[in-house]
Design brief:
The protein is α+β, with helices and mostly antiparallel strands. Helices cover 62% and strands 17% of the residues. The chain has 11 helices and 9 strands. The strands form 2 sheets. A 6-stranded antiparallel β-sheet has the order 1-2-3-4-7-8, covered by helices on one side. The chain has a 3-stranded antiparallel β-sheet with strand order 5-6-9. α2 crosses α9 and α7 packs across α8. The chain is elongated. The protein starts with a helix and ends with a helix. The model has no long low-confidence stretch (mean pLDDT 85).
Length: 368
C-alpha cells in the first residue's frame, strides 16, 4: 500500500508540474510571434475572426511538438527539487527506495509523452500544417530539377520545372546531353524550352516547344526550331518524377510517415542524393525527438535530486543549456546529413547519445 501511495503521489506531482511547464512554454513560444501577428492581421482585415481562431488552433500542434521534451525536462527537475528541498527524497532513500524505484512514475509519464509526441509528428502535425497552408492560401510553387541518367551513369538529360503549383507544369526547360563525356563533364547537345508539359501517368509530353541544337564546340547550330509532341519522360521515371515534384512543394512536417517514407524511397531510386539524405535525417528525427521525452525526463530527475543545502539553480541552469543546445544544433545536423559529411543515422543519433552520456555522468557524480 505504501508503495502504491508513493507512486500515486510522485505521479501526480510530476504530471501536474510537467503539464504546467508545457503550457507555460507554449504560451511563451506562441505569444511573441504567432499570436501577435495573427491579432495584427485580424485587426488589419487580412483575417476574419474565424480564420484567426483556426490559425491559432492549427499552430498549436507545431508548438506542442517542440514543447513536450522541454516540459518533461523542466517538470521533472522542478518536482524532484521540491521533493529534495522538503526532505521527502531523504525519507524515501532512508526507507530503502533506490533512485530508479523513485523515478518509476516519472518514466511512465515520459513513455506516454513519447507516444503522444510521435502521434503529433506522424498524424496531427501533417494535418494541421496542410490546413494552415490552405487557410492562409499559401500556394507554394515548386522549383523542381529532375536528372535522367543512362545505364552507364552519365547524364542523359536534366528536366527543369521553374513553376509547379500542384496543377500546372509550366516553363519547362530540358537540357539534353551527348552520350560521350569530355574531361569528365557532359556536353549539352540541345535545349528544349516549352510553356507547359502534359502529364498522363505514363509520359511527360511537350506539345509545343523551341529546340536549340548545340555543337560539341558549344556553338548554337540554329535559332530555335519549333517542335511538336515530344515525350521527354516515359514509363516508371515519368511517374516517379511527377510524385517527386508533388512531394517537393511540401515541407517535411506536412508529410505523414507513409508519405515521407515513399518520398525517401523515390529519392533514393532516382539518385537525388542530397534531398534523400536530408529527408532521411528528418524522418529518423521524428522517432528520436519522441524518444527524447524519456531521456529528458530521466535527466530532469537526476538534476532535481539534490542534497538539502545544495544550490538549486545549478540543475535548472544545466537544463536550460541542454534545451538550447538540443534545438540550436538540429539545423546544423540537418546540413551535415544533407552534404554527406556524416550519415543521417549518425546525425540523428548524436542528441540521444549525448543525453545518455549525460545521464551516466550525472548519476556517477551525484553517486546515486
Amino acid at each position: 500500500m505504501k508503495v502504491k501511495l508513493l507512486d500515486k503521489y510522485i505521479f501526480s506531482q510530476v504530471f501536474l508540474t510537467c503539464f504546467g511547464c508545457i503550457l507555460i512554454f507554449m504560451i511563451v513560444w506562441i505569444m511573441p510571434e504567432i499570436l501577435l501577428k495573427t491579432v495584427q492581421r485580424t485587426i488589419n482585415g487580412d483575417y476574419t475572426v474565424e480564420m484567426a481562431v483556426s490559425i491559432l488552433l492549427n499552430e498549436l500542434p507545431k508548438v506542442l511538438h517542440i514543447a513536450m521534451p522541454v516540459g518533461m525536462l523542466l517538470g521533472t527537475i522542478l518536482t524532484f527539487e521540491k521533493l529534495s528541498k522538503d526532505f521527502e527524497i531523504t525519507v524515501m532513500r532512508s526507507c530503502g527506495f533506490s533512485f530508479f524505484r523513485i523515478i518509476v512514475s516519472a518514466v511512465i509519464i515520459s513513455i506516454f509523452a513519447t507516444g503522444f509526441t510521435f502521434l503529433i509528428s506522424s498524424k496531427i502535425l501533417p494535418y494541421s500544417s496542410c490546413r494552415l497552408r490552405d487557410i492562409k492560401r499559401m500556394d507554394r510553387i515548386a522549383q523542381f530539377v529532375f536528372p535522367v541518367k543512362r545505364q552507364n551513369g552519365s547524364i542523359e538529360k536534366i528536366i527543369i520545372v521553374p513553376h509547379y503549383d500542384n496543377i500546372n507544369i509550366k516553363d519547362v526547360v530540358v537540357l539534353n546531353f551527348y552520350n560521350e563525356a569530355q574531361d569528365g563533364s557532359s556536353l549539352l547537345s540541345s535545349i528544349l524550352i516549352s510553356d507547359y508539359v502534359k502529364y498522363d501517368y505514363k509520359t511527360w509530353t511537350i506539345n509545343s516547344a523551341k529546340k536549340y541544337l548545340i555543337s560539341k564546340d558549344g556553338v548554337f547550330n540554329n535559332n530555335g526550331e519549333d517542335v511538336e509532341n515530344i515525350d521527354i519522360l516515359a514509363g516508371i521515371s515519368s511517374n516517379n518524377a511527377y510524385k517527386l515534384m508533388k512531394y517537393s512543394i511540401h515541407r517535411d512536417r506536412e508529410l505523414t510517415n507513409p508519405q515521407i517514407s515513399e518520398y525517401i524511397k523515390l529519392l533514393k531510386k532516382e539518385q537525388m542524393d542530397d534531398e534523400y539524405r536530408f529527408m532521411l535525417n528528418k524522418y529518423i528525427q521524428r522517432f528520436v525527438h519522441s524518444f527524447m521525452c524519456i531521456l529528458f525526463a530521466i535527466l530532469g530527475c537526476l538534476l532535481g535530486f539534490s542534497k538539502p543545502r545544495e544550490q538549486k539553480f545549478i540543475g535548472m541552469l544545466i537544463a536550460v543549456g541542454i534545451i538550447f543546445g538540443y534545438y540550436i544544433t538540429i539545423p546544423f545536423f540537418d546540413l551535415l546529413a544533407e552534404k554527406a559529411i556524416l550519415s543521417p543515422w549518425i546525425t540523428s543519433m548524436i542528441a540521444p547519445s549525448v543525453a545518455v552520456a549525460l545521464i551516466i555522468v550525472i548519476k556517477k557524480i551525484k553517486d546515486l
